[in-house]
From TrEMBL:
It comes from Mucilaginibacter sabulilitoris. Keywords: Membrane, Transmembrane, Transmembrane helix. Residues 145-233 form the FecR protein domain. This is FecR family protein. PANTHER family: PERIPLASMIC SIGNAL SENSOR AND SIGMA FACTOR ACTIVATOR FECR-RELATED (PTHR30273), PROTEIN FECR (PTHR30273:SF2). The chain crosses the membrane at residues 98-117. InterPro entries: FecR (IPR006860), FecR_C (IPR032508), Ferrdict_sens_TM (IPR012373). Pfam families: FecR (PF04773), FecR_C (PF16344).
Length: 352
């Protein structure tokens, strides 16, 4: 028999799978509860009321994560303060009141919320190390020029000199995970079902689909994440690989971790980035523009060298709006306009 068929509102409020679905849903939970509610329309109103009560709490993770012992004490004390009806017969009518029981359950929900966010931020969401699920590529850029890398999901990486990137040949797990030492620019292919995580020294950068730069050279005093487009979450890890702080970045914002202060903070970049949408719309809209001018703007924005025969294409012009395209699609569009071919082999970009 389906245990949820006889659930009351307080049963839903104290049910761990239900609370997890409301407060920190994932695709599997969404599928289960949506299917169950469709099959049990008589419970939809009750489940909706329970869900609204949980959401009205606006639970937030603690600024400093609670230890397991602290959480256990909180839950124990709360349970001790819920007076058992059998021990207090004079107040049975009060105990049996729906709202009294709901209020008692909500106290436990608050503690449960701390547990959810603590576990989510430090374990399930952000594993301590990269967990590759297929053969790994270790790419080291020892040249003086940035190298172009295209990942199996279509995401692009511009790996700067004296930097290295470890990544799987194919992204097959629940997350797309790479490890960076040095500096790289990322244009991540959007996939909400498979978050993209970049691991560096003391930081993990988590995105769904966006463009940003990560700079984390060993020995430097500061590590940075700079966002061009989209939304990025940056997490600071301690020596035990637990998340101790995090910031959310939007375009033209950056997060900086300083070794001296051992602290993560965010601010706005002083000069708007060329690849941020507002600037890019203007910079990468061309009307009969010479190819040399377009290549110059691409190299300035992406900090990557593009090889082409200047004499051969001296008279070539392009009319196009390229602002919303990733770098490889920009190059392909340009080549199509001038009747050329493009090559992305060996970490270099060539128009021929």
């Amino acid at each position: 028999m389906d245990k949820y068929e006889d659930y009351t509102i307080e049963d839903f409020l104290s049910d761990e799978p239900f609370m997890t679905w409301v407060l920190t849903p994932d695709p599997a939970q969404e599928k289960f509860w949506n299917n169950w509610l469709t099959e049990h329309p008589e419970k939809q109103a009750l489940a909706s009321r329970a869900k609204n009560i949980l959401l009205s709490l606006h639970p937030l993770p603690a600024a400093t994560p609670l230890s397991a012992d602290e959480l256990a004490v909180i839950v124990h004390n709360i349970r001790q303060n819920i007076i058992p009806a059998k021990q207090k017969p004079l107040i049975i009518s009060l105990i049996s009141s729906t709202w009294f029981r709901v209020a008692a359950v909500l106290l436990i929900v608050l503690s449960f919320t701390f547990i959810i966010f603590k576990n989510k931020n430090t374990q399930s969401l952000l594993p301590a190390a990269v967990q590759y699920t297929s053969a790994v590529v270790n790419y080291v850029n020892r040249d003086q020029q940035a190298k172009f890398i295209k990942l199996s999901d279509g995401s692009l990486v511009i790996l700067k000199p004296n930097s290295s990137l470890s990544y799987p040949q194919r992204f097959t797990g629940a997350r797309r995970e790479v490890k960076l030492v040095g500096e790289a620019f990322f244009e991540v292919h959007k996939n909400p079902q498979q978050p993209f995580l970049v691991y560096t020294h003391n930081m993990i950068t988590r995105v769904l689909g966006t463009s940003f730069t990560v700079r984390a050279f060993p020995g430097e005093a500061k590590f940075k994440v700079i966002v061009n487009t989209g939304r990025v979450e940056v997490y600071e890890r301690n020596k035990q690989d637990l998340t101790v702080s995090s910031v959310v970045l939007i375009p033209n914002q950056q997060a900086t971790f300083t070794r001296k202060q051992s602290h993560l903070f965010k601010d706005t970049v002083t000069v708007p980035l060329m690849l941020s949408q507002k600037i890019a719309t203007r910079v990468f809209s061309f009307n009969n523009a010479p190819l040399a001018d377009i290549i110059g703007k691409l190299e300035e924005a992406y900090h990557v060298h593009i090889n082409y025969d200047q004499a051969k294409f001296s008279g070539a012009t392009v009319t196009a709006s390229l602002s919303r395209l990733p770098l490889d699609e920009k190059i392909k569009m340009i080549c199509k306009a001038i009747g050329a071919q493009c090559d992305f082999d060996n970490g270099t970009i060539t128009i021929k």
